Amino acid sequence: MFITFEGIDLSGKSTQIRLLTKYFESEKKKVISVREPGGTGISEKIREILLDKEHFRMEFLTEFLLFSASRQQLTQEVIIPHLKKNYTVLCDRYYDSSAAYQGYGGKVDLKIINSINKIASGGLVPDLTFLIHISIEESLRRKKLINKREDRIEQKTVSYYRKVIKGYMDISKNNKGRFVVIDGTDPEPLIHVKIIQAILNHKKRKLK
Ligand code: TYD
Q: How far from 82 is each of 66, 79, 124, 138, CA to CA, in Å?
């Protein structure tokens, strides 16, 4: 299975990926987790370019193409080979992030985004995508709590993030078959249980 996690910054994706990895390991299942942008030598270098605060003049289309280059490398080098070996692959962000951030947030034409997303992913579509939803206010509150240093993309404005959230909502409605939207303000253990239930339900549906 290929499972992706989406949501704005500090929605709690990485915690859930950690918990889910442990769950699969305890079930003696083969599992790996990767993150975007990154996950390969080349993709980590692209990540540095993308998140570097000195690159404040980066165009949204440039941003999108770099994310896509990183994604293509990660998909071919890590994701597909592991899926072929029957691993469950958990991915912290995938192409829906590009549609939400660079498409809805940055106004790159969604037709261009969707067609390059198909190319960069080699046609791979996640079996399940968990959208962990929190509001921009909640994200800012959490940022203050942990005093997080912002990278270049996180320095964008509140109105940008509102568009990203709206984008995620639209994308999840247009892809109901694979999206599971989860309230990110629920306690972490409850979110974890909801995620496992959704995975088990998905497996049951596939067996039918
Ligand atoms: P990261 O530190 O990994 O943030 P997070 O823990 O929230 O995932 O930085 C990734 C940043 O890149 C994040 O702000 C979202 C952004 N991003 C895009 O704008 N488009 C994309 O396609 C991807 C994969 C990420």
A: 23, 5, 13, 35
- If one counts the domains in the chain, the total is 1
Please indicate whether residue 9, judged by its CB atom, sits closer than 6 Å to ligand 1.
yes
Candidate of 10, 46, 97, 157 to mutate for ligand 1, largest count of ligand atoms within 8 Å of Cβ:
97
Distance 204 CA to ligand 1 centre (A): 32
CATH number at residue 54: 3.40.50.300
163-193 pLDDT per residue, tens? 999 999 999 999 999 999 999 999 999 999 9
Question: Which residue's structure tokens are 């080098």?
Answer: 77
pTM above 0.90? yes
Which residue matches tokens 């912002």? 150
